[in-house]
Amino acid sequence: MSDTPKPSNPETPASDGEMRHGTRNPALHPTDVEIRNSPDVLEMHQQIIREMNEPADGVAPTPVWLLMFFFALIGWGGYYIAQNGGGFRGDIYNEDPAVLYRQAGEGAAAAKPVDLMAVGKRTFNNCTQCHQVNGAGIPGAFPPLDGAERVSGPPHVLAAILLHGLHGPLQVKGQTYNGDMPAWGQLSDEEIAGVLTYVRASWSNKAPEVSPALVKAMRTQTASQTAPWTGTALDALAKEPPPTEEAAPAPVTEAKSN
Amino acid sequence: MASIAVTKPAAVDSQELLTRVQTDRSCRQTVLIYYTSAVFWLLLGSVLAILASLKMHIPGFLAEWEWLTFGRVRPAHLTSMIYGWAVMAAIGTLLWLQARMGRVRLPLPLLLPVSGIVWNVGVAYGMIAILIGYSTSTEWLEFPVPVLGFFGFCLVLVIYASLVMMMRRKVHHTYVSQWYIYGGVLWFPFLYVSALILTQAPHVNGTVRAIANWWFAHNVLGLWLTPIGLASAYYFIPKVTGRPVHSYHLSLLGFWTLALFYNWAGTHHLVGGPIPAWVITVGIVGSMMMFIPVTTVAINHHMTMLGQFGHLKTSPTLRFVVFGAMSYTLVSFHGSLAALRSFSEVAHFTHHTIAHSHLGVYCFFTMMMFGAMYYIFPRILRREWSSAPLIKVHFWTTAIGSIIYVVGLGWAGLVQGWMMNNPDIAFMDVVKYTIPWLESRSVAGTLMSIGHVVFAILVWRMLRGDGAEQQGPTLFTTARSLRAQRERKARARERAKGVA
Amino acid sequence: MLVVYVVIWSSAVLLGLSAVWGLVWAIRTGQFHGLREGAESIFDDGEPVGTPTDFFPGAARSAASASGTKAGAMEEKWRR
After folding, report:
1. What does DSSP assign to residue A171?
2. Contact residues for B194 (Cβ-Cβ < 8 A; gap 6+)
3. In sequence order, which residues have a C-beta less than 8 Å from that of residue B447 and are 6 or more positions away?
4. What percentage of chain A exceeds 70 in pLDDT?
5. Where are the beta strands (DSSP E) in B85-208?
6. Neighbouring chains to C with at least 3 Cβ pairs closer than 8 Å
7. Considering only CB atoms, which chain B residues are within 8 Å of A90?
8. Which range has highest mean pLDDT (A38-52, A244-258, B450-464, C43-57)?
9. What's the pLDDT band for A55 if we cut at 50, 70, 90?
């Protein structure tokens, strides 16, 4: 408003009723006139009125609970990275903190021995195609493991089967099966011991566990064998004493199995 | 002085109207080319989608032609929908939005329409390559590498046009939608090129490819489709309801936290995979941090809509956009929680993931683009839509279809995950369990496709000029706003008389 | 291989820097001030706050055609 109205403006409300406390001198208060005369006044106030009707729009403050939630979330993020971040190392693959720090070399002494049942359960995935998840096999094609006499029998025979496979007729639970089982010598001693322990302790089987050392001894004893076992050879093997196990090596860690 | 003040509002009024009309006019060719091609690819993608869906429960269906086997139809569906439909719709929308918000004309009036054609050639080339068996077999990047040439040409032009509009803009303030658009436009080419190098270069092998692949696939959604979708929501919800965004500074916080966190989230898809633990952990934390931008967006969209739901009855745009906004909230919260290891162990590698991605790309992004198209088509063609009932049919078929799709397949995926984690259940039993749900997906997909056909008919009739011609420079000017305008002018005139 | 590394890393760093530049630019040009005006920057006198702008076809047509001649005249002028 650059052009200040002159004090002598005819619209000056000298005797206006709203000025109860005496007339203001228009010469001293030129803005009174200006405000009254300005055509923008209504327009301006309409703007204000309109916006006051919706005070929240565009400027609603951030709720405090929201900020608290955000801070809590960021805190959780830091905690989670610290717990599961694996120290940002490229060679740590397991997010479980307990395993993770052992892998990182912090406390190798705390290494626990292999849980053969866990290893075995995982390794058994290789077997379910023929022997099925419930160990029942497929009648007429693949012999069962559940309740089979040989499974609960001498463990070195089982290790032998896994190391070199089977070929030809075989009596299991009164049934004769005539097929082939591939050799699983490519599995580690732990894995073979694990899967044997697993099948010997699952379903209705209740035989004791098989040690990796026994598998190792069996592997050494039969190192020269190339053909798979036959039923008769197995029966002969069952009558032999088990191979002598070497002294158990230092506790095996689970590092590899994860 | 007084007289200037009186006449000024009217002068500004017509000038602004003229600017708006000119901006819309300048977008016509470009946006039309991008939009109509997008609709074409949407239809093609729908056909491929139904084929792929049917093959899931009728494996022998059309299996005798090798170019219609599942392994080709499914990636063809995905790429048609993403690079044909979603990206082209996104580019059309973002160009129009930028011209509108900056109140500038669209630059490059010749090159941008050409870029639309080039993009189509690129997609067509890629689609044919996939169908005849030359896919790269990297998910989301199935197009052969040379397609990058076509896409790169267009993206460079789009970036250039965006920057020019940024420079020339008449509005000093950068509206939140513009932030999202600039972000998306600059991120997407970077993502595409990096992912292409990291998945296709012969030096890069093994798990690095998997990491780069999921980083890319997730970021296409989060750093390209999401920004454009949210930019549309932030523009159309206030614009259609006539009510400013509920909390504007929350919206800015939302943009910057999205920029900060989203990039990390992709690797949560690899939970349990043979990659370093920290990569996955960071991905999970990034996903969880997405709660921050998502909460801000959810608060803004839903609080802006609060008390305005009556507009849903009267505005086609708002229906689709609000459906999209609600789906965005849902898909984001679900995505954050699904990233956690305990959930991933179940839902991973099941139909649950498929349901989730359709909740994101379809229920959120596609519906958002439908809404944008319902707003933009009439304004660039200066015609009204030809039929309100058809719009309603489009909305209800797509909405109901997508809900059946997501709920059915989401639930089936969870049960499938539990069953697969239980070693006592044979794998074939799991497969058999999912079949009814896969059939429900075919039904849902058919419903959605009917909606797409209806939409295509509407667009076709719009192009032919069936709708009523627009009456004023401001389309859909309401009686209320016009009356308010006339009254304002009348008052100003009276006051001016009084002063004189 | 080295080239790939250099390209990827430098572009990633550039992208990060561009975000920082954008933030600094926004603060220095006052994009974070006047948020109320910012929120209303998509409205103007023709489509002011409080005016819905989208309807099903036909719903607003009668209103628009009754809008008076001025808009129509401007429309004609704009067409030419």
Report:
1. E
2. B212, B216, C8, C11, C12
3. B397, B398, B400, B401, B404
4. 64
5. none
6. A, B
7. 276
8. B450-464
9. very low
C 50-79 near A (Cβ less than 8 A): 50
| Closest Cβ–Cβ partner in B182, B470, B476 for C53 | B476
Query: Does residue A179 lie in a domain region?
Result: yes
Q: Which helix (H) or strand (E) holds A53?
A: helix A40-53
Task: Pick A239 or C28 by higher pLDDT.
Answer: C28
What's residue A112's pLDDT? 55
8 Å CB contact between A195 and A233: no
Q: Give me the residues of C, 40-69, that contact B with CB < 8 A.
A: 40-68
Instruction: Give the gyration radius of chain C's Cα atoms.
Output: 24
Strand partners, B383: B469
Residue A197 inside a domain? The answer is yes
Range of the domain at A95: 64-110
Nearest to B333, CA basis, from B297, B309, B369: B297
A109 has a pLDDT exceeding 70:
no
Chain A CB contacts of B495 below 8 Å = 39, 42
Which residues are within 8 A (CB) of B277 and not within 5 positions of it... i.e. 6 or more apart?
Answer: A84, A85, A86, A92, A93, A94, A95, A100
Based on the fold, state whether residues A93 and A122 are members of the same structural domain.
Answer: no
- Cβ-based contacts of A9 with chain B (< 8 Å): none
The ipTM is 0.82
CATH number at residue B6: 1.20.210.10
Does A202 lie in the same domain as A149? yes
Distance of alpha carbon B200 from alpha carbon B264, whole angstroms? 21
